[in-house]
Amino acid sequence: MVGVTSQRMNVLVTGGCGFIGSNLVLCLRAMRPDWTVVTLDKLTYAGNLENLAALEGDSRHVFVKGDVCNRELVDHVIGRNGIEAVLHLAAESHVDRSILGPEIFIETNVLGTQVVLEACKAARVQRFVMVSTDEVYGSLGATGAFTEMSPLQPSSPYSASKAAADLLALAYGNTFGMDVVVTRCSNNYGRYQFPEKLIPLMIVNALHDKPLPVYGDGGNVRDWLHVEDHCEALLAALERGKSGEVYNIGGGAERKNIDLVRALLQLLGKREDLIRFVADRPGHDRRYAIDASKIRNELGWKPAYSFEQGLTETVKWYVDHASWWEHINSGAYRQYFETQYRARLGASPR
Asked: Phi and psi at residue 184, in whole multiples of 5°?
């Protein structure tokens, strides 16, 4: 099967109150106004229902609070809402947290995926899109890029859990004949990203003139993808992707972490002496780069944002929406900063 083309369709987005998930829900409602979008989210520390405030009163958006590991609930959500396609984003996603406590990553990312797959199989859902990460491929050297044929060599409990979920989804396609598509994206950035990730963490800290902790020598390289470009790629995979295929999604914007941090400081008008080099995290992949030629050539997708434009707009959004992250800064984020980054700032800087 190649994609789903119904003009009116009921779609389930798991993890739809998280960073990528909420942007995806908003994208689907804007670009496919005749679709009904159901959001299932546990509302953990990184899930925020405020992200979907623009959809309040929207008769074609349904929110359900719940855990993807709860089979009875997932069956109910799929059955009651006549779900025809699932975009599965619900996951624990922060590498550092997976190092501190891997168990919840295995439970949510592996078991949760199996529960949703089983529910989709039972309900004969038309298509299941597994939203994954380039981190499943491990680390690259100074040259080259990940293709869909690159071996899976995850380095952290987080990436290992995502690799397991990917393989489980593909296995359901092979074993049970389910229509499954897997996507693997590079590092996302944009609005609504919880300030534990690099870009919002650096913005928030810089706005408070707090130290900006940079792992190791800052030479780790990431390929950056604007979240709205990612959402349009996911829509393309849902509608036009080929069953059983993997599609890499990348922004073609490789940057060293230290260069990115300096660019953020320049946009914010802050001085570089806020940067603190801290002890590197265990298993820190050196470089990621995505070859996105397959999704470009086969599905006609390409990113609309240049990195410079996207970064400038992202910084402006965080500056203009301080109220969104200030309550986070006084709660879970502050505790996280105190317990982890402050300890690392006490380590011998490099």
From this structure: -130, 115
Q: Are strands 180-185 and 127-133 parallel, antiparallel or unpaired?
A: parallel
Q: Which of 84, 92, 134, 166 is catalytic?
A: 134
Consecutive 10-residue averages of pLDDT for the chain (350 residues):
76 98 98 98 92 97 98 98 98 88 95 98 98 96 95 96 98 98 97 93 96 96 97 98 98 97 98 96 92 98 97 98 80 52 41
> 91 with 116: CB under 8 angstroms?
no
Both tokens of residue 311? Answer: 């970064």
* pTM beyond cutoff 0.90: yes
What is the distance between the alpha carbons of residues 337 and 6, in angstroms, rounded to a whole number?
46
Tell me how long the chain is. 350
Two tokens at 331?
């709660």
* DSSP states of 69-95: T-HHHHHHHHHHTT--EEEE------H
| Core vs surface per residue 50-71: b (16+ CB within 10 A) or e | ebbeebeeeebbbbbebbbbeb
* 8 Å CB contact between 61 and 36: yes
* Crossing angle (nearest 10°) for helices 227-240 and 19-31: 60
Assign residue 216 a region (left: φ > 0; alpha: ψ between -120 and 50; beta: otherwise): left
Radius of gyration of the chain (CA): 19
288 classed as catalytic: no
Q: Which of 41, 135, 232, 245 is catalytic?
A: 135
Q: Pick the catalytic residue: 158, 215, 288, 336? A: 158
Per 3-state DSSP, what percentage of the chain is helix, strand, and coil (rounded to 5)? 45, 20, 35
Told to judge if 135 belongs to the known catalytic residues of this protein, a careful annotator would answer: yes
Within a 10 A sphere around the Cβ of 300, how many other Cβ atoms? 9
